[in-house]
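Model the whole thing, not chain by chain.
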Amino acid sequence: MSPARLSKHFVTHPASRDVLSPVLERLPGAARRALARSPWATGALRDVAAMVRSWTTPRPPFQLIGRDGAALPGERRLKVLEVRRETPDAVSLFVERPAGVRELAGQFLTFTLSIDGAEVRRSYSLSSAPDEPCWRVTVKRVAGGSGSTHLTERVRAGDTLRTRGPSGDFTLDPDALPGHLLLIGGGSGVTPLFALAKAALTADAGARVTMLIGDRRGVDCLFAEEIDELARAHDGLRVVRVLESSGSVESPRRIDEADLDDALARGTLHEARVYVCGPEPLMDLVVHALGRRGVGGAQVKTERFVTVRAPAADRLPSTPVTLRVGGREAPVAPGQTLLEAATAAEIPLEFSCTMGGCGACVMRLVDGDVAMAEPNCLDDDERRRRLVLTCVSRPLTDVTLEPDD
Amino acid sequence: MAQPTATDRLLALLPPTAQNRAASFVEAGALVTEVESPRVMLGLLPSAARGFLLQRGKQGVPTLMPARHLAHFDWSYTGAQAEMRDLYRRAKQQQWDAEVALDWSVDVDPLNPERPILPYEFFAFERFRAYGTPLPRGSKEELRLRADLATWMLSQFLHGEQGALLASAQVTECVQWLDGKFYGATQVMDEARHVEVFHRYLTTKLCKLYDVNDNLFVIIDALMVDGRWDMKFLGMQIMIEGLALGAFGLLYRLTEEPLLRDLLRYVIQDEARHVHYGVIALREHYRTALSPEELRERQDWAFEVALLMRNRFMAHEIYEEHYAHLMSRKEWNKNVAESPGMSEFRHTMFERLIPNLRAIGLLDERMRRHYEDAGLLRYAGGRDASQLSGEAMLAELDARGHGDLASAAS
Ligand code: FES
Ligand SMILES: [Fe+2]
Ligand SMILES: [Fe+2]
């Protein structure tokens, strides 16, 4: 029996594998065989390994469960290089860019934050373009939002952030720029739009880009100076700001269909590609109005910032169920997501944001039933095709998955 | 603050991560000196090695325990036992479905100061001011600690319930009365339900689960591998369940969290039956079937284990999580022992336990002296499990009022 198989077979303790394997590899073949035959000896070995391990790297005397606890691979600890206050309630965190990682403009990062002893995950769009030296994430404080409050008030330069991603397909291919790039959004939705504008203008300094931005008051506008400066340097960029404060108190001025028509008039409807990111009502208005004008499908991309809500715990089974995927099985503990369970059983599944925001983890449900955290990035059509996001799906029954292709 | 001993000083020389591990070695060693009866000590030693030294309960993988009891088959279906038959009948009628009986839609926020799982007085974290961590009542940190302490207790209940599930299944195989086997089967179901509800509460409401405490592991391990059925009964039905019953009662009275309170109410009714069964099964056996020698071993064992539980159930997992960098284990122990909640906890535990030991005949003249020395004899006059039903116990708890901690005890 090879040392690798021996250690896999008998020393299933995840923590002891790395302690034992080097020892086992050095044993002569006969000793290894004798060992493999004796359950007592392998048991004792395992105990010793666990003991060694507990001295050097003790595990905490508890486990965190369910929505916040499970660890997935692929997380990076990145250092915050600088914290810059952008507006009274928004800051930009400049974060070191890990070597060899290249994002597309418009993507987002997911942070795992420890707040009052609990772990929470939050996603934030990058406001930096791919050619900037470090990542920049701009966070606007939301009243009552624990994640945004933590990031805007407590994080300091020098801290590290547990980071996943970049993820998401609210992106732009710099080699295939549209004739007219129309970026519409408001509030913190400007963040990815700013990155998209910069990326487009870097790829083609003369690109025709229109930014239609809504916000409450001038002081709340994110990146106001930087965007103005960008517009001064590029004739093709036009910036239109619609401020609530320019209307009356009873009916604040908001982006409306007339603004949209003005913006669209900079080119033909056909050559427009529209990116929308902002408050729900704005997004709905824009998407519907565009649809009425025959602009839809691949021409329009949307990105929603929402807090994902886990399904109510009482809908979930209280005992483990089984996940079948690719001919293998994994137990899913109550509260675990399909992705967490598969990962714990060393079944590799694709994923990126772990938040239901990017679609990287999509699979088809062949059998069984799941509850997905909502809202997430699946559309109605995808739901009809029984697609699920494993990162936010908790099984209601035994479940079988297959790749969607 | 407690005076450091030579061992404490030696421990302090180790790096902090190693200190905790070393401390559990020291604790294992201390067991040898704490347990007076050499026979009991030798009996516990293998389990102590597995628990304290090898930390089998804390490796993050299942523990396999070799069970060596004999299953008792009776092809003639004799062994009628009226009192057990009656318990069996009651048990069948009182079955409940945790899915339906409890309102799981209740949103539990362990940090909600309006509905704390434990009252502030339970631990009175204010006492740690001397160590440089003022934890004012109701502050976030204080609430978090209280929630963690409650989670720790409930986690130990859960592990204890799993022990009860497996042990009650073993005992159902072992007993010679057919009525006992019938009853035992209902207890297995009860314990499964207890594991279900505590597990569900911990994993879906508190979202945290603590490892088994080393001392609890040692006792569970010792019972699981002991081949003698009456030892399993004594350990599980009388000692662990008896103590748990006291603890459930206290928590039921103190908690402001409605779901937990409901849950405990149901569990207490089941548990009262279980302890009652243990008393019936052992009363007869200990009076008639044991040699004086064997009886003495049971007496010593029960006494030593009662003291172990009193002296060692000290929430060390919480200490390691929050306080290891601030104070020595010894100081922690002292603080825990003196906290009002823990004192009350011990009081209620022994109030339930000692009368049952009397009922099964483990409290003769010799043992009375021992219990007297340990300050526990004052509980000997109370009602045992055959005299106090779950309903009666709940009625008394309700009558004592809710939420206040009258720390009269110990
Ligand atoms: S990993 Fe991004 S949606 Fe699941
Ligand atoms: Fe129980
Ligand atoms: Fe029980």
